[in-house]
């Protein structure tokens, strides 16, 4: 007799990677005779929990954001009821790339460790830790990967995830995600900084350019309901987790990351901070040759920019109502250029491989 008679996966997915992984696991569970219930936790409504008479295996799947678990999943796990089962597993999707024939992995940081710790505090034991290097969707950082590369990464990862599912369902433990603990811990300060400040700044780089026809898809699809209309243009709230769903889904390619503006603000703040630091150096009679003051002005420049990002964003959003500003912001953004591809997983693979309705109540 199987140790479990049902599988529950709770997942969050910006651009479909964690969703696809959850479906592959669900598929393997059904092959093994388990009833699978795969739910996205987007709007945190009507989440089904296992019944008392079930013997469930519970899993959580989520993307890695800033070397950490997506915040919406951290909140979900923090509020997850105790005592529904004994054993759980975690799967984080990361930024997979391919250079020539070599598959490059992403970096987990504390994406597995933090949720595992919270679950442990709640009395759950993690029997599976699995990072999966699906195509990177971090579009403000790099152009979307080519279709052929996406296909080959997906084929590889599907095999990996199915294999993971078979092992977990058969009662084996998989600790693959813990092999990189030293590197992950080394990176944890960056994860913390991103969690506290970085993610708020990132949400304040999104703008909708003049191609936007107010179709409302971004507002409807946002997993954290973080986009609203202000002056008839989408406006990103601080609760945005930069999951990239809006940017990749927009049929008009109207959503951009305002690179030019971010760099301009950084330069302005760095220049102001340089002057302040120089004044301090003079006032305190410190040798101006010391090496760290230039670095300090860069770092404090970034910090100031993050601190006032929400205010700057409000001003920029208003100013974009004027055509010259709108064009300036748009054409200083790398994402506007045709070579800066989007990550079109949802468009390119939905029809080919996945039949979401089979396992997925939305
Ligand atoms: C804001 C942001 C931060 C990210 N941070 C990381 C990271 O720290 N490490 C990593 O390997 N991938 C990172 N990624 C890449 C995603 O985790 C990866 O593409 C994931 O597979 C996306 O899954 P999804 O389609 O289910 O959202 C990041 C992506 C975004 C948008």
Q: What is the topology, as strand order, of the major beta sheet?
A: 2-1-3-4-7
Number of helices: 12
Ligand inventory reads:
flavin mononucleotide
Mean pLDDT: 90
What would you note in describing this structure?
By secondary structure, this protein is an alpha/beta fold. The protein is built from twelve helices and eleven strands. The protein has a five-stranded parallel β-sheet with strand order 2-1-3-4-7, sandwiched between helices. The model is unreliable at 351-362 (pLDDT under 50). It binds flavin mononucleotide (FMN). Residues 13-18, 63-67, 93-95, 106-107, 109, 134, 136-138, 202, 242-244 line the site of flavin mononucleotide.
List keywords for this structure.
362 residues, alpha/beta, Rossmann fold, two-stranded antiparallel sheet, 12 helices, 15% strand, binds flavin mononucleotide
Outline:
Helices cover 43% and strands 15% of the residues. It has 362 residues and is α/β, with parallel strands linked by helices. It is globular and about 75 Å long.
């Amino acid at each position: 007799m199987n140790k479990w008679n049902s599988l529950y996966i709770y997942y969050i997915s910006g651009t479909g990677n964690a969703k696809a992984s959850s479906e592959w696991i669900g598929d393997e569970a059904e092959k093994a005779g388990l009833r699978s219930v795969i739910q996205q936790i987007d709007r945190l409504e009507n989440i089904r929990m296992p019944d008392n008479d079930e013997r469930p295996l519970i899993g959580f799947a989520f993307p890695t954001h800033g070397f950490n678990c997506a915040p919406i999943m951290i909140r979900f796990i923090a509020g997850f009821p105790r005592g529904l089962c004994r054993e759980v597993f975690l799967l984080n999707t990361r930024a997979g790339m391919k250079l020539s024939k070599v598959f490059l992995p992403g970096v987990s940081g504390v994406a597995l460790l933090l949720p595992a710790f919270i679950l442990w505090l709640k009395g759950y034991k993690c029997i599976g830790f699995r990072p999966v290097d699906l195509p990177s969707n971090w579009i403000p950082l790099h152009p979307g990967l080519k279709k052929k590369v996406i296909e080959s990464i997906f084929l590889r990862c599907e095999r990996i995830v199915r294999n993971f599912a078979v092992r977990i369902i058969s009662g084996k433990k998989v600790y693959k995600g813990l092999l990189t603990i030293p590197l992950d811990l080394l990176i944890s300060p960056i994860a913390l900084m991103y969690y506290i400040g970085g993610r708020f700044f990132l949400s304040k780089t999104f703008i909708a350019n003049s191609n936007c026809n107010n179709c409302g898809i971004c507002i409807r699809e946002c997993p954290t309901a973080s986009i609203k209309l202000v002056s008839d243009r989408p406006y990103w709230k601080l609760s945005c987790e930069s999951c990239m769903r809006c940017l990749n889904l927009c049929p008009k390619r109207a959503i951009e990351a305002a690179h030019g503006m971010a760099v301009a603000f950084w330069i302005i703040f760095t220049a102001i901070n340089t002057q302040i630091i120089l004044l301090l150096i003079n006032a305190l009679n410190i040798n101006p040759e010391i090496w760290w003051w230039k670095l300090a002005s860069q770092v404090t420049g970034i910090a100031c920019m993050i601190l006032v990002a929400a205010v700057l964003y409000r001003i920029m959003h208003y100013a974009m109502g004027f055509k010259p500003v709108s064009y300036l912001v748009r054409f200083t953004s790398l994402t506007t250029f045709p070579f800066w591809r989007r990550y079109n997983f949802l468009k390119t693979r939905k029809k080919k491989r996945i039949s979401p309705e089979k396992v997925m109540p939305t």
